[in-house]
Write a structure and sequence with these properties.
Oligomer: single chain
Mean pLDDT: 90
Helix content: 40-55%
CATH class of the largest domain: Alpha Beta
Structural class: alpha/beta
Order of helices and strands: EHHEHHEHHEHHEEHHEHEHHEHHEEE
Number of domains: 2
Distance between the termini: 31 Å
Shape: globular
CATH architecture of the largest domain: 3-Layer(aba) Sandwich
Amino acid sequence: MKKKLGFYPGCSLEGTAKEYSESVVSLSEQFDIELKQIPDWNCCGATAAHNLNKTLSLVLPSRILAQAQKNEMKEIVVPCAACYNRLSVTQYELLKNDQLKATVEQAIDMPLNTSIRILNVIQFIQEYILPEIPEKLSHTFDKKVACYYGCLLVRPHNILKFDRPESPQFMDEIMQMLGAETIDWPFKTECCGAGLSVSRTELVGKLSGKIVREALDRKAEAIIVACPMCHANLDMRRPAIDQYLEMKTEIPVLYITQAIGMACGLNERQTGTRRHLVKVIGNYFTKTRIPVENNENNPITVEEII
């Protein structure tokens, strides 16, 4: 029977990070999971609301949680690191303050249950995808990669309590399961420029450029991310990065869901890699020999898909 989970795509996955949404949904289907979008969802307020209006920064995520509650969702998958951060921080603040919770409920004119479980994409993969990867793995990601977590996925640690705040490991462990070699590097949680991609492109070029240069200096052949803002800055702002570095760089940036999806047999349409500005070339995977009916003495070879 299909597992069913709530799904909050957020604004990015409906627009500039459409390929992320495609890979999350396709991967879920590959593992017999149905993601149901929260009906009538709204923007969570990232990245500006919490800098401009404290009440609004709580009201926007609260309405999303209330809509999920209204539709009897107990768990929701939130792939965007910024959205995950805003929903989780809001839930934490309302749990601590009944008066604040009452004020927010009045503003959204809806009751709010703060017990809904919010999963970022790594938590979702660990709990619902990871156990079944070995039996679905058809290709090996046999390259050296830099796993880049960004600054929002693991912070603030006292609220999110997810992975290690300075040197997270969960995404590295997932990529190692796919056959990749992960580099040990100090830029895992450095800021790429986040929401300044449009207003301060030159600053994003500098911050993201340092990340790309460090990955290249350590011989990484791909950068793996789990945040649409990180992907946009490292992929879409590559001209600004190249200008800052004074060199042309071609290292691709892949979402963790794209890497898993391709390793498990999904094509570039299903994973959305065709939408990337820095092209994902077709030699990141090698054939994996898969036994027929678990008979290791009678293997078959799976053809490359990209």
